[in-house]
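TICKET #2291
ISSUE: user wants both folds in one file
ATTACHMENT 1:
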Amino acid sequence: MTTAAKPLMSEKTMEIVKATVPLLQERGVEITTYFYQTMFAEHPELLNIFNHANQKRGRQPQALANSVYAAAANIENLGAIIPVVKQIAHKHRSLGIKAEHYPIVGTYLLRAIKEVVGAPQEILDAWGEAYGVIADIFIQVEAGMYKEAEEQAGGWKEFRGFTVTKKVRESDTIASFYLQPADGGALAAFLPGQYVSVKVEIPGETYTHIRQYSLSDASGKDYYRISVKRETAGAETPDGIVSNYLHDHVKEGDVLPISAPAGDFFLHTESAAPVVLLAGGVGFTPLMSMLNTLAEQKRQVTYVQAALNSKVHAMKEHTAALAAANENVQVYTVYAEPTEADRAAGSFEKEGFLDLAWLQSVASQEADFYFCGPVLFMKHVKAMLEEWGVPAERIHFEFFGPAAAI
């Protein structure tokens, strides 16, 4: 596929779609919320694929609205949205979304546009034509990803059984699961920062649940490792059903269906610049894979872990040992609410929140910056780096779940 090719749409179609951009900005989430409600009501089998929690907290409708808006705004040059397409396609491939799902989505998206905004047939026809072109781009990109995942050394198609060979409690809220292929076969390599999808069937639940978890160790081992935070009910995490199931019920010897590694957030090894890794809470997981890899490669790296306190600080001993054993590794800890024991032990370098002045004292502006954590943490870090004047090409970040604007 040549992504730079002119889209196969008439000028009239492109004019109509472009003209709907203000409407999508105004009512995009309303349209996509209606879309998901009607589609799941008539195709409940799709609930075996989609994340129910993201539906409840509105993140999935918002993400879809953002994608639709980006497509409409770039309808004359769809090559401009290829980076977004690839990011979404990684998620789709890891979830098992197929070409046959796209006509279903198209049907309900057009119905939502018609019902929510009362769009006339001319607009529906234009969007139907445009959706066909956009869907074909996704289908072709994802087909290539499925092929690559299956044909790589140690690769596989869709989901493969992995045995939990070790389960380790890392903190009060985080546990690591070491996973090896149940079939005894080879294990595909991955890029530091990538994730796998885990599929679980929970007793009493009508549908299967799939979640993405970052691989939290370097590639090249005979296992994959994921480190999972136990989520509790709240505004950001309405159910935490999968994480609680993994913590409470999955034990060593159990087998979990796992996708091949995916994701477009990974360490760029072509650069020789120093690296700064900024982790907020459980956002350490993809960064830990990067840290372990950089330690092995002897590339200069500064790792900063921001956490509430030592009770929820995972892998503190591991990172301290890395720093002690490798001159190229520097590790710093920032506690928002340290315990008295933390203060007595001097187990952190900064109290409170990460700020620019402190970051400038431990890191170089010439570094490549990677960060992950809660959305508010990432907004704060991105704003700091921009204020510092770090070029956009040196700023890399990862969202857990559907991408949001920061």
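ATTACHMENT 2:
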Amino acid sequence: MSSSVGEWTGQNIIVLGLARSGVAVAKLLSRLGARVTVNDRKPRSECPEAAELEQMGIPVICGGHPKDLIGDHIDLLVKNPGIPYHVPPVQQALSRNIPVVTEVEIAWRITNSPIAAITGSNGKTTTTTLVGEMLQAGGVKARIAGNIGKALTEVVEELADDEWLVAELSSFQLKGTERFRPRVGALLNVVSAHLDYHKEMSDYVRSKSKLFQNQTAQDIAVLNRDSDTCRQVAETVPGEIWWFSRRERVNRGVDVEEGWITLRLPGAENQRLMPADEVALPGAFNLDNALAAAAVAWGCGCPAKAIRETLSSFTGVEHRMEFVREVDGIRFYNNSKATNAEATMGALQAFDSPIVLVAGGLDRGVDFRELLPLLRSRVKGIVTYGQAGSVLMERAEEAEVPLRESAEDVAEAAQKAARLAEAGDVVLLSPACASWDMYTSFEERGRIFKQAVHSL
């Protein structure tokens, strides 16, 4: 499946960007005999990982990108997924026809283990975690990596040849792949996101679609039948398509029929797995995640019994519709991972109780008009914060949300939301925005919200 590790001996490779994945891939390639140089634009004082790499004999250049970093002697540039393609070293490499990849490509070339890779605008972490739990419950050897836990290049050397690598992958990671070929690949959904990086929606979709580009008829492509974009992507997918759908019956894959999650393969007897309303995770979007995870795990050889047991017991991942606590009859939920409007729409639809919404964050020029129907029908109060707070407040006013306040940050927003709510209500942090205007990550934002709730 993958090339020999011997292909790296004597290769001159630039690793652009430290962080977790950069450190991991630099160490791995160096161990395999490559001549590796690491470059990060941050000053040395902000690169604590540099010393460890230098002790291994790997040169590290901090504080900018030297003009002579990329020359004709360079065989490959491995960049941190978040580094945009317009930065000078990447442009110089591309102009010299030097391949530019992410560590996902390196991991795939090295391992002989089968890979199940999951991408999508929303739901990746929940679905990936579900697949890992299902495989473990079913006695199928598996390891989760990628955007969850360790980088792929941190684990590939440890994997047995019959052990599945279950990988959550972003569009940033997939854009930098060439030969990457998962045995099972899943595209959950595609909504407008990360256009500050991709510039155009077409590039975003192409990057997601690279998940399937090297598959053959022996591989499985799991796609969302209820998504127009996924149906369009399917037209060019070379792998065997397994659909998942909660709206219509599919020929091959997983759907909901008469309230039952059903597994289907042509020429085989359909398997009624479990009633859809027994899935432990709340909300229609989590039912989508459940169906996708069932299809992926089934494609990896997981027994139906283990899939069913996991779906009925798995209650979620931190920062994703995470129940925090109940105070005076008010239930508090942390959905900090909702970094776009579509994710927040799914969260609002998950509750029947009146909602006090906490939303805001990085302003990417989104007008949030798609939230209007749910603001009108589901939200009794809103507390906004951050760069996008004023736009969200405008939408709340337009939707005539009865209770409206603004806050300086998430902690104050949690306190104000608690005062707006009453017994029987839900206070929901579902920001509809990235966190980077005020916080280093959605995880930090979610932890601060939870701390504020626990201090009530």
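RESOLUTION: both attachments delivered.
EXTRA DETAIL ON ATTACHMENT 2: The chain has a mean pLDDT of 94.
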